[in-house]
Structure formats: C-alpha cells, structure tokens
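ingest -> validate -> predict -> emit
validate: passed (alphabet ok, no gaps, 256 aa)
predict: started
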Amino acid sequence: MKSFSFLLPNRLEKPRNNGLTMALDKGLGYETAKSLMEIAGDYVDLLKFGWGTIVLHDRDIVMNKIKMYESFDIIPYPGGTLFEIAYTQNKVSEYFKEASSMGFKTIEISDGSTDMKTEEKLDFIATAKDKGFQVISEVGKKDPEEDSKIDIDSRIESIKEEIKVGSSKVIIEAREGGKNIGIFDKSGNAKDEEVSYLLKKLANDKIIWEAPNKDQQIYFVLKAGPEVNLGNISSNDITSLETIRRGLRGDTLGKV
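emit:
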C-alpha cells in the first residue's frame, strides 16, 4: 500500500498501452537499478539501455539486469544506436542473434546517425518482427542540421510506414538533451503547431515523445493528457514524471 494512498489519483495499471514511461539506463549498477525499481518500478514501462553503453559492460551483469527489469513488468531493450553500429559494421544478423541469446524480447531500430535507406530500415523492422522481436523504431536524425531537412509530413509518412511493417511504437527523436531536434526548438520549447498537427494525424498509442526535460514533460501532459507516452526519461526523474502525470506537483495540480 502506498503512503497517503487516499490522496493518490488513479492511473492506468500496467501493462498498459498508453501513459508509457520509457526510462534510460545509462550504466546503472545492478543493485542500484534494482533498488530504484523497488521504489519506482510501478512507473516504468520501457527501459532503454542507452545508445551503445552495454557493449562496455559484463554480459552476465546485463543479462541479470534484463531479468530483473522484467520481474518488475518492465520491457528492457537496447538503444537504437547499438543497432546502427551493427549496421555500419555489416553485422545486423549477428546483432539479432546476440540480442535474442541475451534475453532481449524487444529491440529498437533507428537511423538517426546513419545514411540508412528507407527501404533498408523498413526491411530490418519487418525482419526483426519475423524473428519474434517486438520492434520499437525511431524517426528523426541526431544531427540538428540533418533533422531540420525532414518536414513534418515526411515524418508522419515514415511513422505510418514503420507501423505498417511491424513497429509497435515509434519514437519521435529529441535526443537526451531535447533541444533543436524534431519538435523542440533551440531553447528546448515544443513547437506547438507541429505537435498539434502530429497529434491530429497519428494514433497517440503508437507514438512515444522523447521529452527528457521537466518543462517538456509538463507540456505534453497538459497538451495530450496524463496518459501520453513519454521517453528518454532520466532514471533520476521517474518519480518526478509520475507526480506530473498525477497532478501531485504545482505544475499540474488541478490541471490533469
């Protein structure tokens, strides 16, 4: 039972399809990660091992963390950059085999740092799904100049194509910093007209909005509701985001 449970607003229970929180593990130790999940695991749905971090860590420790996260009803998966590294080294087949053998049931496929062709990306998504993985893909480029060349309708078309071939969710790129990428300007403020357009054109349960900063999280909760899917949440901000969702801090008190 939660303390002061009579003051706790209701929210969708896990496993849920909306209101997802995708948090980042950028190299947490096993015991640290477990302790964090014991207190905040109810509020995490997806756990991304950030970019290529797990290549640096002991395989057995990573596998134990995968099992630990799953014990809290959390879906762990490797970041898309790791897939892109495999792609640049022509080792995608080996990547799929290793991910499966380590216990990953979900993988991310992205092209944010590479010149991967659209057809290639779609084929990788379809192949991964055929191999039994749940696929989360990502749309957008990590370089601000390259990302600015993608107009909003092209983003929408890419998202729809990736869902059609097998992606269960599509992440809208904002990087860890959340500035000057995708739907965020150089100051990290959301481009409201673009967000409104995307919300109108896309199914909300298929989109994960990367929103690493508190003001961005508040914006999306007020804009799209407390059950909006948000990603790239720092492990330090898991509880903070949940209070935003539930109106347990001044920014959203009485507004959700």
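Residues 8 and 187 are 33 Å apart (CA to CA).
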